[in-house]
Design a protein that fits this description.
mainly beta, 6-stranded antiparallel sheet, 16 strands, 179 residues
């Protein structure tokens, strides 16, 4: 619904961060859904996002309807992906900083990269991603809303490890992010 959409304009001005447009998720009810997404493993999800506050859990993306494949942060400052098995980075979140997350969902070869640095690798499970919710978990039925700004979300239906550094470099240049 219109009330649940993140803002892109405030007081007649496009919302920007690092001089680039961004969607502003308010942390209370904003989300985006795409019902025509269907990804089987291996797949890659890339986000450029800044998180403003930390609550119990802020979900960046999830499968609509089921919490079967997601990327989130938790109140103990960890970033993790879960495709049926939790892969925890044990890495602290940096609030209010635009960061590039490059997540490879590939069973026992899954990985999380932040700003070009690998922060987790291992088994994240084998679930695919059917339908997509951005900014909350389980199709908006959860209470784990993202409080922050989303600049970009890219999905590939393959493992893009071989192209990772080139993709990250292009994104970093555009958003003025140091990697």
């Amino acid at each position: 619904t219109a009330g649940s959409q993140p803002k892109i304009v405030s007081s007649g001005t496009v919302i920007k961060e690092n001089n680039q447009p961004a969607l502003d998720f308010d942390g209370s009810d904003d989300l985006l859904q795409a019902n025509s997404v269907s990804l089987t493993q291996a797949f890659t999800m890339i986000m450029t996002v800044s998180q403003e506050t930390l609550t119990v859990s802020n979900t960046f993306y999830d499968a609509t309807g089921t919490r079967s494949n997601f990327f989130a942060s938790s109140n103990d400052d960890d970033l993790f992906i879960n495709s049926g098995t939790l892969l925890d980075s044990n890495t602290d979140i940096v609030l209010n900083e635009v960061e590039i997350y490059f997540n490879i969902h590939n069973s026992t070869s899954s990985k999380i990269f932040r700003d070009g640095v690998e922060i987790a690798s291992g088994d994240a499970g084998t679930s695919g991603l059917t339908e997509l919710t951005v900014g909350n978990n389980s199709g908006g039925n959860g209470n784990n809303y993202l409080d922050g700004k989303l600049h970009e979300l890219i999905s590939y239906d393959t493992d893009k490890s071989a192209d990772r550094t080139d993709i990250e470099s292009d994104i970093a240049t555009y958003y003025n992010i140091t990697i």
